[in-house]
Amino acid sequence: MSPSSSFLFLFLTISLASSHGFNHPFDPLAPLEITQVQTIVTSYISSSSSFTTNQKVHFHYVGLEEPDKPSINSWLSSPSLSSNLPPRQAFVIIRVGQQTHELKVDLSNNSVVSNMLHNGNGFPTITSEELEIANALPFEYPPFIASMDKRGLNVEEVVCESCTVGWFGEKEKSNRIVKVVCYYLNGTVNLFMRPIEGIIVVVDLDQMKVTGYNDRAIIPIPKAEGTDYRQVKETDGEGERRLFRSSLEEEIIMQQDEPNFSIEGHTVRWENWEFHLAFDMRAGPIISLASIFDPEQDTYRRVLYRGFLSEIFVPYMDLTLEWYFRVFFDAGEYGGGLCTVPLQPLTDCPPDAKFMDGYFTNQDGSFGKTPNVFCVFERDAGNVLWRHTETGIPNRVITEVRKEKTLVVRTVLTLSNYDYIVDWEFKKTGVITVTVGATGLLEVRGTEYTHADQIKEEAYGTLLAENSLGANHDHFLSFYLDLDIDGEANSFVKTKLETKRVTGNWSERKSYWTTVSEAAKTESDARVRVGSGDTQLVFVNPNKKTKIGNNIGYRLVPGSNVGQLLTDDDYPQIRGDFSKYNVWVTPFNKSERYAGGLYVDQSHGEDTLAEWSKRDREIENKDIVLWYTMGFHHVPCQEDFPLMPTLNGVFELRPYNFFEQNPVLNAKN
Amino acid sequence: MSPSSSFLFLFLTISLASSHGFNHPFDPLAPLEITQVQTIVTSYISSSSSFTTNQKVHFHYVGLEEPDKPSINSWLSSPSLSSNLPPRQAFVIIRVGQQTHELKVDLSNNSVVSNMLHNGNGFPTITSEELEIANALPFEYPPFIASMDKRGLNVEEVVCESCTVGWFGEKEKSNRIVKVVCYYLNGTVNLFMRPIEGIIVVVDLDQMKVTGYNDRAIIPIPKAEGTDYRQVKETDGEGERRLFRSSLEEEIIMQQDEPNFSIEGHTVRWENWEFHLAFDMRAGPIISLASIFDPEQDTYRRVLYRGFLSEIFVPYMDLTLEWYFRVFFDAGEYGGGLCTVPLQPLTDCPPDAKFMDGYFTNQDGSFGKTPNVFCVFERDAGNVLWRHTETGIPNRVITEVRKEKTLVVRTVLTLSNYDYIVDWEFKKTGVITVTVGATGLLEVRGTEYTHADQIKEEAYGTLLAENSLGANHDHFLSFYLDLDIDGEANSFVKTKLETKRVTGNWSERKSYWTTVSEAAKTESDARVRVGSGDTQLVFVNPNKKTKIGNNIGYRLVPGSNVGQLLTDDDYPQIRGDFSKYNVWVTPFNKSERYAGGLYVDQSHGEDTLAEWSKRDREIENKDIVLWYTMGFHHVPCQEDFPLMPTLNGVFELRPYNFFEQNPVLNAKN
């Protein structure tokens, strides 16, 4: 890019960044601001005596330094006053000279406010550029080429992917490494169904070179036939070509003119809901200040201060040499936001969806863009909001039915083989439903087996096709939910449904159940494994009651869920101990954001939700955070081959004596 | 009706009944056939020496006598051969001279094939006519009028409803009674929010007179204000009038021309699915012979032989005198099918839905019709069937996304206050999802309380508004699912995910989980309370395997669910013991259809799923039936007042090594 075109680009960016004419303190860093951070940090490094001249800086994270709550609340009291905006700061993680630094950068005065060296275990999110280079290194490594030759494979058809390596109790300070595993395309694009087993290439990311190599065994590569998933495989010399999609084209014609929601800057308004939607290169979508309008009080009432996907823990259950370390912490190791993909209009989202872009930081500090990173759409799934047919009044039949429409915010995170469709759905009833759809490709292990009858010992999974074992694994997605149920100070109340036996003859009945509620005093009271359905989990504002005296609250309604099965002392579990319970509650602490820790790559589990919770802090009538872990045990089946249909997990936040009465009684169709 | 108009009517009915030009042995009785049954039975009674001349006959049930499986299978082998059709028979339950008779009626030769007197406990479904008369009896009963006067109530604004009375250990042979409870409309149509507490009117249904009365206490009636739920309350002298619904009118315009599914007679075909849909006055919708097309085998493969809602058990947890007996078995006591309501086009179902009517039998044997009892529609909820974005191949990005559309069959059962929206949803992936939405009105108890702080003793529920206690209760819906996974003989396999500790140093890991599968041998092995998610529940065809050797199967995937909390010895629980486990499996037995028994009104729990299961029959590699109970614990909250938003329960049947691979890999958008 020449200097003049660069200037033009910056100018355009400025125009775009301010085009919505409105600033919100939770707005993510705009492209111009990312560039500004790059300039400030680069200049700081080159001028600071702490750093050697000309040391190369890699940016691993650049995001908004979240303003303190008091300053947000002060701004909210009169948001039109721009002087009320909290100072605009960035939180930055860089690697310089094989060390990790955390910087706080003030954008208003172009300064680095603080610089902290990270001395502990664990490394920041690996950059996309590092992965790209590491994935290419085997092709310049003669022993690897020899291994391919030995197998008779055409190197041009081999692709490699870097796996994070975890931690397995090593005491010495570890190098920042990945283990590269490779696949043989030759006739398919579905690389994950064609693993070249038996080979591990160890790459040191700081030195960016191969530091270890093992070719243990030659194992058959599953066949390519039947693994491709593309609609059109023909090429016209310029890559894939698409058929004209007639049915989708028709849908465009049916598209309605204007959506029934508005997006002003990053603020989304729909029916009785208002919330802020931001993109972050670590967390992906962040929902802030979600509030629902209460016509009775003639005001918006807060439900959720901040909510995002905090970590994704995917431990595989295959203990073979090339597999045991596959215990991914996807969001922290690869970057949940970095791995978002552009949503395809008409297929990923309905025709009338509106799209937003997301901006992240490249390794060199420049900004990158994921176009269409979010879509927002109104969903009419043909459901009924409420209904009743009254036939109990003689000679009259009354039927009243209201249709349900909801608002969906969708993001897709593609973490290598898996695609996670993350939907935040807002309902007029006050319900927030979070649905995660898992689809994409399984990780498959190559094997000699061609028939299940041949399997005589532990195979760690299901034979999905000839030579293809689908490895057993879990997904644990931890959601950070800083609830503010009608205000900041909340309590977590467990309402147990208890069987009461009737003693004496005063009733014809011998039993019934009733509710016994108890507020969790400290963090240890608030660890819950869901499942029995006999305990209701309610977050109340103990300082407010409805007119008739019930505690104002919201219920956490888990969907079908599972818990961790690994032993407590297993290293992956030490790092991902948040998966032991589905529910944790902590007092708000700005530094506690990621359930597996800030530096999760090769972490030792020292900075995790489970560790913080051990402090057993008080959580009653405090500003508290709910951490909800949604789990899937995945025993693969043949229907998952060569690509799996979407499998959904879900949870809800549902008003529970939050309103004086049904808030949608007056809903119109 | 004059004889000539009656003839015309019959003629029209014949034309209608045969209009689809196709007969299926599972087709429900057509109106003409119901009339034929009425004629045959009436003539039989009047001519049979077993009955006194001129004894009045009440028809409590008339439905198809389900043909035997071999005759169905024989017909299926060449369905075009009408001679292959099994004999057309009806199953009839009548009451004559205070006794219950079961008749089998052959329609081909106009005869009663069998007549069995029911000597056991329990009574058949109460007829709508009986309920109507019973509900009116208090108004002719002077002590009741006096009670109204004492309370200063205008009798014209009082309406009453009959509650079944259950069984509480009485040894003597019971009369067929209901307990009538009343409500005060005066200013609302929401009668259930305005109970007149303290009064019970006992009505003997056989004598059809008041046989007991108690006015125990005067308790405030909750106010009417704010309880009405109608969109337009103004009247123009001819009852309610509707506003012009502009947004719905628009949707009609957007309606597509032809749906993507066909309904031929009662057979529905959509994408890869084919099934038969029938209406029954007890069970409501019955899905039969649900089969999915397998392009690899070029044939339809059976999944479900018969599926329907077998019973709905709703025990309330309020032990006060007017409430303890409210432990309803709605489907058997009031008739699940009898209580279906006509679906409202545009609101209960989307604009492009197709509707079907249902026919039932009136008390006198004539037929009645519920128009629009089912709707069938294709749903596009904006979901993704599957997707993947592949970024692992250098210099290429591949994104493939397929939209999901599904087919929904919807019915609404309005059981007095509650409306159940029952959706059978078929997915191209082979998944069958059953969703039950509970909406409508709570049962509310009148109380002195106007503020929660006043409650010092057990209130059995939540104060929802002044003087209104929402009673704690459960819903247990038992689904009868006669699975035929790729054939009749199936086994139920529990696949447990077991933690394995690694011993020795051969792995860096200390643990993993693996699967241990065991087929249930007998009924006692097959009782499961779901929840932990650590056991997969699979129905396999042990006689068939996929090409690579996996058992062909379908998984039962429970949604979030609950189990029974009543004690085993409590009378309601003895009658509704199927609620103790979410999963039961029995060998197919034509007489075992209703989890709470055939004669559930005032039953003693002698003919229930739990009782049948005690025989502990063999179920491995047999024609087996899965009974799945979906449970809700409902602790009411203010949002449920004065009408509750829809609350969903769900379960799925999902192919599990049923197909050789993902059956929707080639799906087109």
UniProtKB/TrEMBL annotation, chains A, B:
It is an enzyme of class 1 (oxidoreductase). It comes from the Eukaryota. Residues 1-19 form the signal peptide. It comes from Lithospermum erythrorhizon. Belongs to the copper/topaquinone oxidase family. Contains 1 topaquinone per subunit. InterPro entries: Cu_Am_Ox_Cu-bd, Cu_Am_ox_TPQ-bd, Cu_amine_oxidase, Cu_amine_oxidase_C, Cu_amine_oxidase_C_sf, Cu_amine_oxidase_N-reg, Cu_amine_oxidase_N2, Cu_amine_oxidase_N3. Homodimer. Residues 253-665 form the Copper amine oxidase catalytic domain. It holds the Pfam family Cu_amine_oxidN2. The keyword Secreted does not apply. PROSITE patterns: COPPER_AMINE_OXID_1, COPPER_AMINE_OXID_2. The modification 2',4',5'-topaquinone is found at residue 418. This is Amine oxidase. GO terms for biological process: amine metabolic process. Topaquinone (TPQ) is generated by copper-dependent autoxidation of a specific tyrosyl residue. Residues 24-114 form the Copper amine oxidase N2-terminal domain. The active site is at residues 330, 418.
